[in-house]
Write a structure and sequence with these properties.
The complex is a heterodimer of chains A (293) and B (236). Chain A is mainly alpha-helical and 293 residues long. Chain A has one domain. Helices cover 73% and strands 3% of the residues of chain A. In chain A, strand 1 and strand 2 form a beta hairpin. Chain B is α/β, with parallel strands linked by helices and 236 residues long. Chain B has two domains: 156 residues, Rossmann fold (3-Layer(aba) Sandwich), CATH 3.40.50; 62 residues, no CATH class. Chain B is 40% helix and 28% strand. In chain B, strand 7, helix 7 and strand 8 form a beta-alpha-beta unit. The chains are: A mainly alpha (293), B alpha/beta (236). Chains A and B meet through helix 6 and helix 7 of A and helix 2 and helix 3 of B. The structure holds adenosine-5'-triphosphate and magnesium ion. The site of adenosine-5'-triphosphate has 13 residues of chain B, from strand 2 and helix 1.
């Protein structure tokens, strides 16, 4: 029983990481009906920026928020420079642009920082603590706490502030929002900035576990897709719940289902995606809707 | 000087031109009707004013030229546009919809008073504040749209068929309040309607559009009294 509980905590920690990246996907999907395939690479790039800042002697807890600010600015810049010119193009064009962006950011990171995996510091001690009789690592608890705080902040920003209100309005009905004076195009840019910053959290949290290299996020993004699809790609709350479910499921499957562990864990995520698409195409929190894909 | 003035305005969608040179004006505090059959270009005229379609010609509002202005900025000049279909954000609550009307204002005290007044006009909105706007009936949504427009504290309201799809009693109630808003707050109104009879009751001046051109203009009383105009353009 303690073993299961331990796996659940680990799962929640991975789940928090998936949830952050999934939320990033949902923010952009909501704003423009686009799945941003470059989200993982943007997170990876931000993580390299974090490690560069720390190399320069910045304390972890200073480098972390500074990186988020830079990631935010980077997200806004990508929207303004790369996405805006093709904003009205068919979705397929946009998808191809984000795929191009994926390759570009990946190559750029390789060019600047090289392809050798490097260690990334964790601010949490590697000791364990007994929670309800299970041995849980401070690492897992720390990741859960950080992701929890970040997700809460995003929630409050979207639900309780005026700028959050105008962002939601712009995403739901750009025409009507413009008539209220909402600067829709800038709301899109803000959405990209926020998504970029939340995604960066997932990169920074996962880097101590996976080691940092340009392809670090390529599996994480699959889990994030699974989480977003499971939650309903339009629902921020769904992304978070989906992330946690995927994290816990994958961890439990890895520990207790024979042969799943290691590489086959990714297959569990893919199985979740396929199952959801077949059984409940709108996800757990999505509403049935007809909308461009 | 007129509050709103259109001069030889042409507009269209892509290659299709819809408005072929429209000139009209609305004085401060005035109610003006814009009438015409389906597809005449009434909605397009309103969308042109708030920058929703590409247009050429001249539009002036409160002494400023609206040429090349984005919708967001036109609205900031003091024009509240209740569009065809009402433009309610059904994913948001009633309260959040109202908040979108007032969020640009900085006169907090006056905003609070305006909320009170809006809830006096439409008590049902107070009751439903926390509910999703999608739960409102058609009439209630129209009330919400007008309430939200009023909270923008506009000098001019553009109303696109506020009576559409509503029961006659609801229509009467809504028009009563539009009249109050006009008289108590001095808000000018450019009113697009299919229901010419009720529109001419409200307005002092009226224009009739026919496939993108002005066919008739005059005082509302004149139009009401002119049987041939009534029969050929207004359908009653
Ligand atoms: N988005 C659009 N793209 C292309 N053509 C359009 C568009 N919207 C309207 N039109 C055309 O412009 C013309 C005028 O339409 P508009 O909606 O302005 O008429 P209206 O007077 O408001 O009609 P109704 O009383 O039916 O609302 C019509 O011929 C219509 O087909
Ligand atoms: Mg119309």
């Amino acid at each position: 029983m303690q073993g299961v509980l331990q796996q659940v905590f680990s799962g929640l920690a991975s789940g928090g990481i998936f949830a952050s990246l999934a939320l990033a996907l949902v923010l952009i999907y909501n704003a423009m009906g686009l799945v941003n395939f470059a989200q993982g690479e943007m997170a990876m790039f931000a993580t390299f920026i974090a490690v560069t800042l720390m190399d320069r002697g910045l304390n972890y807890w200073i480098a972390f928020p500074v990186t988020l600010v830079i990631a935010f600015a980077g997200g806004v810049a990508i929207q303004r420079i790369v996405i805006r010119p093709v904003e009205r193009a068919p979705v397929l064009t946009l998808v191809i642009v984000t795929l191009g962006l994926t390759a570009l950011i990946n190559g750029l990171a390789g060019f600047i920082w090289g392809y050798l995996p490097r260690a990334f510091p964790s601010p949490f001690p590697s000791r364990t603590i007994s929670v309800l009789g299970a041995y849980v690592s401070y690492q897992d608890l720390g990741v859960i706490a950080v992701c929890g705080v970040v997700l809460l902040v995003i929630y409050l920003l979207l639900q309780r502030t005026t700028v959050g209100l105008t962002m939601r309005a712009a995403a739901h009905n750009p025409e009507a929002s413009r008539l209220m004076g909402v600067r829709v195009s800038w709301m899109l840019a803000l959405g990209w900035g926020l998504a970029s910053a939340v995604g960066a959290v997932s990169g920074i949290m996962v880097a101590p576990i996976l080691f940092l290299e340009p392809n670090m996020m390529q599996t994480v993004i699959i889990y994030a897709f699974a989480a977003a699809v499971l939650g309903g790609i339009e629902s921020p709350v769904g992304a978070v719940v989906g992330g946690l479910i995927v994290g816990v499921t994958v961890n439990l499957a890895g520990a207790y289902v024979p042969y799943v562990g290691g590489d086959l864990e990714l297959a569990v995520a893919l199985a979740i995606i396929v199952a959801v698409l077949v059984l409940k195409p709108n996800g757990l929190f999505g509403r049935p809707s007809v909308r461009r894909v | 000087m007129a509050l709103l003035e259109l001069e030889e305005v042409r507009a269209g969608y892509g290659p299709t031109s819809v408005l072929h040179g429209i000139s009209l004006s609305v004085q401060e505090g005035q109610v003006v009707s814009l009438l015409g059959a389906n597809g005449a270009g009434k909605t397009t005229t309103l969308r042109t004013i708030t920058g929703g379609v590409r247009w050429s010609g001249n539009i002036r509002f409160a002494g400023r030229s609206l040429n090349r202005m984005h919708t967001e900025d036109v609205v900031r000049c003091g024009i509240a546009h209740v569009p065809e279909g009402r433009g309610i954000l059904t994913d948001l609550s009633v309260d959040e919809n109202l908040k979108l009307g007032s969020y640009l204002r900085h006169d907090g005290q006056a905003v609070r008073k305006d909320y009170e007044r809006v809830f006096e006009y439409f008590p049902v909105l107070r009751e439903r504040r926390r509910l999703s706007a999608s739960t409102l009936s058609g009439g209630e949504q129209q009330m919400l749209a007008i309430a939200r427009a009023l909270l923008m504290k506009p000098k001019l309201m553009l109303l696109d068929e506020p009576s559409l799809g509503l029961a006659p009693m609801v229509v009467r109630a809504i028009f009563e309040i539009i009249r109050t808003i006009n008289q108590a707050d001095g808000v000018a109104v450019l009113l697009v309607e299919q229901n010419a009879r009720i529109a001419l009751e409200m307005s002092s001046q009226a224009y009739v559009l026919e496939v993108g051109r002005l066919a008739v203009k005059g005082s509302s009383a004149e139009l009401k009294g002119n049987e041939s105009v009534r029969r050929s353009y207004l359908g009653y």
